[in-house]
Amino acid sequence: MRQQAHWKPWKLEVPWIDHMDENQLQTIPPPDSGEPLAGGEIPVLTIACHPDLSRIGERAALFLLASGKTEPVSRNEPLFQPPDGGDRRAISSPNVSRKPFRLVPSREGGITLFPGDSKSLLELEDDAVDLPRDIENENLSAGAILELNRRVVLLLHMLSPHAQPRLPIHGFVGHSFTMVRVREEIERIADLEMPVLIRGESGTGKELAARAIHSASPRRGKELVCVNLGAIPPNLAAAELFGAQRGAFTGATKDRPGFFRAADGGTLFLDEIGEAPPEVQVMLLRVLETGEIYPVGSQKPYKVDVRVIAATDSDLETRCIDGAFKTPLLHRLSSYELWLPPLRERREDIPRLFLHFADEALRELGDSLRNYLGHREKPWISTKLMTRLLRYSWPGNVRQLRNVVKQLIVSNRGHDRLELSARLEQLFHWSPMHDTQEPENLSDDTAPTNPSTPSPTTGAPVKKRKPGDVTEAELREAMARNKWEPAAAARTLNITRASVYVIMKKFHLPMVEDLTDAGIQETLKNHAGDVDAAAMELCVSARGLRRRLKKIMPEN
Q1: Could you read off the pLDDT of 126-183 as tens digits, one per residue?
Q2: What is d(CA 97, CA 148) in angstroms, rounded to the nearest whole number?
């Protein structure tokens, strides 16, 4: 979990929004002697769902809130703008009240949501809000989901004012700060000759990043050869990579050039580098150091000019400890490491990714997303569907989202509204909404009733628990039962994942970030390098511990 400091008001320079004049900017005070939010981040609202799908992804920087003042949010304010520039517009949906709800800085460093006189049905993380509610820093880090009258979804999150959204896209969809940072890094390293190790969970787009580096490099006119080492039988890996002479082994009836020679002058992308057999690791280290390869069965070296980009979702540091991966090779490959964020850490990109993949799937069916754009009385994407997409943890990341979107499009072929199939409802742990009526257009003297989600077994309303109702004993039991994974414990306790972090801090439960390097290494040594066993003793998630190990692995 990213560490958050309490945010303080300070002067802002935001390249993607320009509607503040000089007098307004002067009303935002500079930093005081306190510590501002990490990286100078500012609160932002991003449109995640709107009756006009073309509005999805627009942002409003909350300058009043950043300056320590109250920020009203209604049909008419604030103004939203696409991240890459364009017209500034209010929400402008007749289903959203003209009377605002308000966002106010809280004394604890977060934000307090006041419903005020707003006539919109206001929901925070699927819970109706009729009294003031605190939004903690942990919620802001992930992005707090605000649903307005079941027609508009806003994501309240933090954003660095130094983001550069106008950088080349490189095939990546989304303008979250983490993806802007990835594009910045690609621009920074593309023209260099050093090897690059791309790291990230499965499905985060590692091959896309490799293609982007090659396309932006001086080698763009030469070959990019992509190899998945996990798909090559170990006994053939050396011959496939470095080539083989005729007769070098059974079945070698002619000389084979190999992937390195095929990529000569260009780039070789080695995916699943953690699956490389030990003998191949030795040969890879040699070619990285000398630029020479020895085909299998040959005593003659061949000089090659290849830039190597490798990728993995494996914990290579632990594999080094276990002796399964050679530490010198890891150090040589990781001359520069490019980390791709999991989808759950770039929640504000999910709506735009959804539209991108929806357009792909529609085109395959002879349709187009253009047919669903513009303001529609009955929106093609419901706010409840988008809310489920935003709240899901996406263990398969962007690849999984693409598959889910394709299934949604195909299963709703010919329909004017997307509905979840039974299988996808099960995926999202969501029972069907029996009450499917949409609220009528709002005047400011009418208010909708407060619908609730029926239980799949009894039909009685079921709401998430308040974090304050969870006892320390319940929390510890749920965390231990779920191997100290906060998301799984949240489901057990029927609270949000962000709330788990809040009450973990309240009851002083350990977090990976709080552990010392020496303590981690000593525990790992006591368990002979078994990360899972060490995590259980330390009472932290094994996944989080592996991420921490990547940062503290000593150089050899």
Answers
A1: 888 988 998 887 788 789 999 999 999 999 998 876 656 566 778 889 888 889 899 9
A2: 9
CA distance 478 to 484: 8
Confidence of residue 249 (pLDDT cuts 50, 70, 90): low
pTM for this one?
0.71
Is residue 436 situated within a structural domain? no
- 351-402 residue pLDDT tens: 999 999 999 999 999 999 988 887 777 789 999 999 999 999 899 999 999 9
Using DSSP, state whether 74 is helix, strand or coil.
Answer: coil
The SS3 assignment for 61 reads strand
Longest dimension (CA), the chain: 87
3-class DSSP assignment, residue 465:
coil
Q: Do 189 and 310 fall within a single domain?
A: yes
By the 8 A CB rule, do 335 and 32 touch?
no
pLDDT one-digit tens code per residue, 35-52? 333 336 789 999 999 999
Q: In what order do the strands lie in the sheet with 307-312?
A: 224-228, 267-271, 307-312, 196-199, 336-339
Together in a domain, 501 and 534: yes
Number of domains in the chain: 4
- Which residues are registered as beta bridge partners of 60? 45
- H, E, C per residue of 204-220: CCHHHHHHHHHHCCCCC
Q: How many CB atoms lie within 10 A of CB 538?
A: 19
Alpha helices in 27-133 (DSSP H): 63-66
Look at residue 143 and give its three-state secondary structure: coil
Whether residue 106 has pLDDT greater than 70 = yes
CB-CB contact of 266 with 217 (8 Å): no
- What sections of 225-326 are H helices per DSSP? 234-242, 258-262, 278-290, 316-322
Q: Domain of residue 401: give its range.
A: 348-427
CATH number of the domain within which 370 lies: 1.10.8.60
Report the C-alpha gap between 124 and 153 in whole angstroms: 10
- Residue 229 within any structural domain of the chain: yes
